[in-house]
Amino acid sequence: MSAVIRLQGVRKTYGQGAVAQEVLHGIDLTLARGEFAALIGPSGSGKSTLLNLLGLLDRPSAGEVFLLERPTSEMEEAERTRLRGEALGFVFQFHHLLAAFSALENVLLPSLARNGGRLTPTLRVEAEALLASVGLKPEQWRRKPAELSGGQQQRVAIARALFHRPVLLLADEPTGNLDTQTADQVFALFRRFNEERGLTVLVVTHDPRLAARTDRIIELVDGWILADRSAAPHHPAP
Ligand code: ADP
Ligand code: MG
Question: 34-47 b/e with 16+ CB inside 10 Å = b?
Answer without folding.
Answer: bbbbbbbbeeebbb
